[in-house]
Amino acid sequence: MQLLNNLGSFIQNELLGMDWLKRLITDIIVRLGYDPTTQLAGSVHFFVYDVIKITILLCTLIFLVSYVQTFFSTERSKKLIGKSRGISAYIIAALLGTVTPFCSCSSIPIFIGFTAAGLPLGVTFAFLISSPMVDLGSLVLLTGVFGGKVAFLYVLFGLVIAVVGSYLIGRARLEGEIEDFIRNSSADDFSMRKLAVRERLDFALYQLRVTFRKVFPFILLGVAIGALIHNWIPESWVVKLLGGNNPWGVVLATIVGVPIYADIFGVIPIAEALLYKGAQLGTVLSFMMAVTTLSLPSLIMLRRAVKPKLLAIFVAICTIGIILVGYIFNGIQGLLI
């Protein structure tokens, strides 16, 4: 049993959390003659460490997830979901969302393809909600930063939001709220021929290059903001706005997160710094969910596919779900960290 605990700690701290990298950067700063406890050196340490750590995890995850994606074309996914009935179809669609691109803007074209392919509206929204909110990247990164319990519950609650929210949309019979050009189009799909391993690897490498170029600037920005919060913003400010004494902290964090466009890799450093400064866990996670799921650019893209009524219902369901999850995490924070 002790061996398993040691192995789990090694995976979380050394592989995912990359504590070895943190120690290495600290040693380099000391060897250069700087005090690592000063604000400037602390900011440099935070920035270099998080950029390298997130880049390593990002490249690994994009490659693996992209390889897995080659087995889930639109038509195959439609057949997989089509074999299920009732709530199981929503669950499968939500789970499929965990092996798709890392940001909401990347998920919307796939959502449109599913809708054009004839999948039920509610089921397609299960995919749309879960894809940016609970992808594999969030599971791995959250494990490295906040621990396995937090990561597991974050993914679980995200899937619950996706399944319950999409079920409500499906029951509301809102098919008429899809734009006509989507309903009248047919889905484009990848070739159904069996791909060779080399072709799958080439596709994964291509996706790695394209996605990394698109995401990396947001990683730099997110880490820079995180370093600023971590070393320069007074702790009292964060505690006052997002700490336990402010009952509206979760609502505030959710509202603030909506206009921001970033994926899980860009928002993690900000969340990490806020938690370190005294923000409550649920408040921080609500901010993350709002940024990744309800970013303003993604809502603008989604508006091209759905009419205002459906868009408003989607935003309302996700917002209420995110706020509820935030308060739940705040209530059990003492049991998790």
List keywords for this structure.
mainly alpha
A few lines on this structure:
With 337 residues, the chain is mainly α.
Description of the structure:
It is a single chain. The chain has 337 residues and is mainly α. It has one domain (2-336). 77% of the residues lie in helices and 0% in strands. The protein contains 17 helices and no strands. It has helices at residues 2-16, 19-31, 39-69, 74-82, 87-96, 104-116, 121-133, 136-146, 148-171, 180-183, 197-231, 235-242, 249-257, 264-276, 281-293, 296-303, 308-336. The longest helix is centred in the middle third of the chain and has 35 residues, at 197-231. The protein is globular, with a radius of gyration of 21 Å. The two termini are 22 Å apart. The model is unreliable at 187-192 (pLDDT under 50).
List the helices and strands and how they pair.
Elements: H1 2-16, H2 19-31, H3 39-69, H4 74-82, H5 87-96, H6 104-116, H7 121-133, H8 136-146, H9 148-171, H10 180-183, H11 197-231, H12 235-242, H13 249-257, H14 264-276, H15 281-293, H16 296-303, H17 308-336
Major β-sheet annotation: none
| Helical/strand content category | mainly alpha
Cα separation of the termini: 22 Å
Number of strands: 0
Q: Supply Rg.
A: 21 Å
